[in-house]
Amino acid sequence: MIFCKNENDEIPVLQIYDVIGETKDENGTLSGISGKEFADYLSSIENKGKKGIEIHINSLGGSILDGMTIYSAIKSCSIPVDTVCVGIAVSMAGVILQAGRTRKMVPWGQVMLHNPSGGDSKELDTLKETLIKMLCPRTGFSEAEMSDLMDETSWLNAEASLKNKLIDEIADITTDANLPRITEKTTPQAAYKKLLEVVNSIHTTKTENMKGLASLLELPESASEKDFIKAIKALKNELPSKDEMDKLSEAILSKEKELAELKEKYAKMEEDCKCAKLEAETLKSKRQEAEALALKMEAENIVNEAVKTGKLKAEAKAAWVDLYVADKERTRSLIDGLSSYRAAAKLNVENAGGAGRPMNIGSYMAEKRREAEEQNKKRK
To answer: Which end of the chain offers a freer environment for a tag, N or C, measured as fewer CB atoms within 10 Å?
Structure first.
């Protein structure tokens, strides 16, 4: 079963939170993630005009065949697909993680890689070679090193994965809603409030109030006045001084200011990156246009020379220019191998018989052959 967290968003989040490969239990209940079903679902989202897709992975791996189907579907998707390890990416799940345009991992994430199992040795060796070719291109490991890593059944945490280029960045997905906060019981203001409650309680002589005070100070109901005073002094000593409170407030303000400056710098960096990317794309386009123009000019020069030397006919010039642009090396080789098609110059036999007399072409050719034979005899 494929679960999409936010199908209507511009960047939907697909979750691989189960074993890879569909299985049935003894009751016929299906579980696991079908590679074909995942690929079909990915294709359906791709055709909805989304900006991209994000795939969150927390899986123990599973079927290599289904995993390869998912890997190939991600790699062939026409829109950007980013992968995020949000827990563990074991075995085939770790391979799928490598298919993302950007590969991320939460600080507490883990990747585990090991050798394939469950078949004869020849099949397993072939599968291992395939998995290594899927894993290595974007990592810091050679194929031999990856093979050793899989032999050892290796676990890599977020820092090790980043160092060895199994991921591109460590991403903390903690939201503001889940940031740790100071509870009321631990704030200085709460301590002052508690002290005030104690002081107010001392001013009453009612038994119930004294019991309440004892409970508030975590004292037994039989506590004496000295016990109350001792507990209140201890509470007072736990309170920070005014100077400490002022320093704490200044530190908080400083951190808030620092955070605001960092957010501003980050926004500027994002804008600069967008501008740099646009500029790079423009320069790339201009360079490609210039290269195409230079290649066409080169093609026209080569073809013009071939026409001039009689290797090509002028009416075929445009077609040969297109061939040269499409496949420079092969077309150049073809042109170099051509011979001149031009016919020999027309013989002037008007006066070949001498004294203005025309000569029969057959006689003329026979005479030329005799002359050639005599010259050959002289050479010998």
So the answer is: C
The widest CA-to-CA distance across the chain, in whole angstroms, is 161
Nearest to 92 by CA among 28, 20, 195: 20
Tell me, yes or no, whether 189 and 286 share the same domain.
Answer: no
Q: pTM for the whole thing?
A: 0.48
Return the residue matching tokens 């020379």: 305
Interhelix angle for 242-308 vs 317-326, to 10°?
140
What's the pLDDT tens digit per position in 72-92?
A: 999 999 999 999 999 999 999
Angstrom distance (rounded) from CA 149 to CA 247: 51
Structure tokens at 348: 């002037």
Q: Which residues contact 165 (CB under 8 A, 6 or more apart)?
A: 138, 139, 140
Domains contained in the chain, number? 4
Q: What is the pLDDT of residues 101-118, one digit of tens each?
A: 999 999 999 999 999 987
Ranges of H-type helices in 22-120:
35-46, 64-75, 92-97
CB 81 within 8 A of CB 53: yes
Residues 17 and 92 in one domain: yes
Q: Is 190 left (phi over 0), alpha (psi -120 to 50) or beta?
A: alpha
Higher pLDDT, 352 or 62: 62
Domain for residue 254, yes or no? Answer: no
Q: Specify whether 113 is located in the same domain as 160.
A: yes
Domain around 189: 185-239
Buried b (16+ CB within 10 A) or exposed e, 92-103: bbbbbbbbbeeb
Whether 144 and 209 map to the same domain: the answer is: no
